[in-house]
Specification:
7 helices, alpha+beta, L,D-transpeptidase catalytic domain-like
């Protein structure tokens, strides 16, 4: 059986199990549901309720009713809601705000990635989609396929995006370098990590420190890290997220820095651009 063979391959893959169990502990409270859904074969051209979505799309992609043009009853057709980025299942909510299967992955991400937004375990391999997204494995196949993680930082909008296989997974507000000490732009690589690094020049701590290196970014000079912390425990720049005020590093808020530290392995490419 495919499921059994898929699990046997995972058992033989030390690296995948190490990653999945590590991240499984991080996401231990997330629900799991094993078993792929079997849907009837439907012509992609049929749109029974004339809402702009084919019956096939409604059943297998959006999980709306192919017989009701306005599934959530908000006076806006399912097709129009999807086109504008809103959920056709929940009134007044964007797809990026809804997690239909409560697996920790927003519907907008599941739709972009092609996973099942109504099934916590799309590939029926025993690992929830969110655990596989977090650990970097493809949630669309039971085969142990590792995907490329990447980080993109925008110095104008002061935003950090993290991506899997080139698809946006999530974003955080950051604070990059001020005008006199700008964060370098270009393509870099995460080469070092430390849970708590000390800055000798600034005389403060930098929690969840991830050093990125490359052209104009020598080893140890620039990093992505949590808001700096003075020896007495006071945080530096708590009100400055979204404003470029750092000495060149990329500052993240409390919580988001730890998440990115856990999500980002050494070797991850980092692109820094002026939006």
């Amino acid at each position: 059986m495919r499921w059994v063979s898929g699990m046997q391959q995972r058992i033989s893959s030390f690296h995948k199990y190490y990653a999945l169990f590590f991240f499984g502990a991080f996401l231990v409270c997330l629900p799991l549901r094993v078993g792929a859904e079997t849907l009837p074969s439907i012509s992609p051209a049929i749109d029974s309720d004339a809402d702009g979505l084919s019956d096939q799309e409604e059943l297998s992609r959006y999980h709306t009713s192919p017989q009701i043009a306005d599934t959530d009853g908000d006076k806006v057709g399912d097709g129009e809601e999807v086109q504008k980025g809103y959920s056709p299942l929940v009134v007044g909510k964007k797809l990026s705000e809804v997690d239909t299967d409560a697996d920790g992955v927003m519907d907008s991400v599941e739709l972009a990635f092609g996973t099942n937004l109504a099934n916590t375990d799309t590939d029926a391999d025993g690992f929830s989609d969110s655990i596989e997204f977090f650990s970097g494995y493809d949630p669309r196949t039971a085969e142990p396929k590792l995907l490329q993680k990447s980080v993109r930082i925008h110095t104008v909008s002061q935003r950090l995006d993290y991506e899997l296989d080139g698809i946006l997974i999530g974003s955080y507000i950051v604070s990059t370098g001020k005008k006199s000490t700008p964060t370098p732009t270009g393509v870099f690589t995460i080469t070092k990590k430390a849970p708590r690094a000390w800055s000798r020049s600034a005389q403060l701590w930098m929690p969840w420190w991830m050093n990125f290196t490359g052209t104009r970014a020598p080893s140890g000079m620039y990093a992505v890290h949590e808001l700096p912390e003075w020896p007495g425990g006071k945080k530096e720049g708590e009100k400055h997220l979204g404003i470029p005020v750092s000495h060149g590093c990329v500052r993240l808020g409390i919580g988001s820095a730890k998440y990115m530290y856990d999500w980002t392995p050494i070797g991850t490419p980092v692109t820094i651009q002026k939006d």
